[in-house]
UniProtKB/TrEMBL annotation:
Protein name listed in UniProt: Class A beta-lactamase-related serine hydrolase
Keywords (A to Z) from UniProt: Hydrolase
Organism (species): Mycobacteroides franklinii
Matching SUPFAM superfamilies: beta-lactamase/transpeptidase-like (SSF56601)
Molecular function terms, GO-annotated: hydrolase activity
Length: 431
């Protein structure tokens, strides 16, 4: 079924153009807003953490129960359920889906050596992904999707590094060029650093959350299909899922839909989990400034690990797709075998017990994971970028899920999202 036909079948009021661009519409008008009491509770939570704009959704397998927004998306524009911003690491669940589609089609295997894929590729990029400490041990597709690689983000390298930058969005070939230089020993790879780009862990033996592992996974989509990563995901994942207001290409999001990232400052000190990228603030701020600062829109070529632009309405569809075992409104985006595997333990308890992830992981699927305190059947993924925060969580036992999109970053030790997710999912379950 085409994306346009899917939009009609799903009762959506949004369609794609033939080029895949997002088009303006009034989608969301048919989705009920939050009950007043619940909305007030959630607003108090976000305001207490200085979140400027927030949107949320709550779903069952059958439908989006609620979608709503409050606060400011950017100067002069309210935050709504269609306000679209970069959602950070929730993007990894889309990247994993793209790779698992190729597994389902028999084009790659989960235990395929990444180097075997790269050897057949015509796309410019790395030709080898191996630990310098274990050069004879393959890094596999499974390792990438389950955070079992020794790949780290490396040192900060300014405009060519991991840091976000303003200006034109990177072209579709920059991901491959970046990974080539990061993973190829000198003199051909000028950002290669044996000590800082890799840990000394043996591939497959240590669970360590890896952004770069998912950037490699995204590049493999290009290497296998010949389509740039963003184009493949738009055609084969996002549009079939009815996520017609989401894209890895920042420039395809209409300006009127864009929310801007923000940070809260107290006496000149930025709060939140990211570094102080003050260069992203167009007018600058005083050294003793207290208040919100609006960042300019920024981009990075490393989109597979965190570069999707999305909103709470589209993420509601994403949650429903996973509650449906890879199927949404009669359209199969991912075969049930692969969807079930993504929401299952893929790392041994012994390895998980000594996980080096930054959060208390207790179970790792493919991208999706479970944290301490999650009930059986609950799977989740949080996201954070400079000036943004997001979250998607599903409960496959109760058949409910929720999504959150914020245009202000929050601190790990002052994060309102877990409590918000619980209230949203309880509301969906009781609806």
């Amino acid at each position: 079924m085409s994306a346009a036909a899917l939009a009609v079948a799903a009762g959506s009021m949004v369609a794609c153009s033939s080029s895949g661009d997002v088009r303006e519409s009034g989608e969301g008008d048919q989705t009920p807003s939050l009950p007043a009491g619940l909305k007030n509770d959630l607003m108090r939570l976000t305001e207490s953490k200085h979140v400027l704009g927030c949107s949320v959704s709550a779903v069952t397998r059958e439908r989006t129960v609620y979608a709503d927004g409050w606060g400011v998306a950017r100067a002069g524009q309210p935050m709504t359920a269609l306000s679209t911003i970069n959602i950070g690491s929730v993007s990894k669940t889309i990247t994993a889906t793209a790779v698992l589609q190729l597994v389902a089609a028999g084009r790659i295997g989960l235990d395929t050596d990444v180097n075997d894929v790269l050897a057949e590729s015509k796309a410019y990029g790395p030709r080898s992904v191996r630990s310098p400490y274990y050069p004879d041990i393959p890094i596999t597709i499974r390792h990438l999707l389950a955070h079992l690689t020794p790949l780290t983000t490396g040192p900060e390298l300014g405009p060519y590094g991991y840091a976000p930058r303003t200006g034109p969005a990177p072209d579709s070939g920059e991901l491959g060029r970046w990974l080539h230089d990061f993973l190829t020993p000198a003199p051909r790879g000028w950002t290669y650093n044996r000590e800082e780009n890799f840990t000394k862990s043996k591939p497959g033996q240590v669970h360590m959350y890896s952004d770069i592992g998912f950037d490699v996974a995204g590049f493999l989509v290009h290497a296998v299909t010949g389509q740039p990563f963003a184009d493949y995901c738009r055609e084969h994942v996002l549009r079939p899922a009815g996520m017609v207001n989401s894209d890895f290409d920042r420039d395809r999001i209409p300006d009127g839909r864009r929310a801007y990232p923000h940070a809260w400052f107290e006496n000149g000190v930025k709060k939140g989990m990211w570094l102080d990228y003050r260069n992203l603030i167009p007018a600058g701020i005083a050294d003793d400034y207290t208040g919100h600062a609006e960042y300019s829109p920024y981009a990075s070529c490393l989109t597979p690990d965190g570069g999707l632009r999305s909103n709470s309405l589209d993420l509601a569809r994403w949650a429903r797709l996973w509650l449906g075992g890879g199927v949404l409104d009669g359209v199969e985006v991912l075969p049930r075998v692969q969807a079930s595997a993504a929401l299952a333990d893929q790392v041994s308890p012994e390895i998980m017990a000594s996980s080096e992830a930054p959060l208390p992981f207790i179970s790792q699927g493919y991208a999706w994971h479970r944290l301490r305190g999650d009930a059986d059947g609950q799977w989740q993924h949080a996201g954070s970028e400079v000036g943004t925060a997001s979250y998607v969580k599903i409960d496959t036992v109760r058949g409910v899920g929720a999504a959150i999109v914020m245009n202000t970053e929050v601190a790990i030790d002052a994060d309102p999202r877990p409590q918000m997710l619980k209230q949203l999912m309880d509301a969906a379950a009781s609806h």
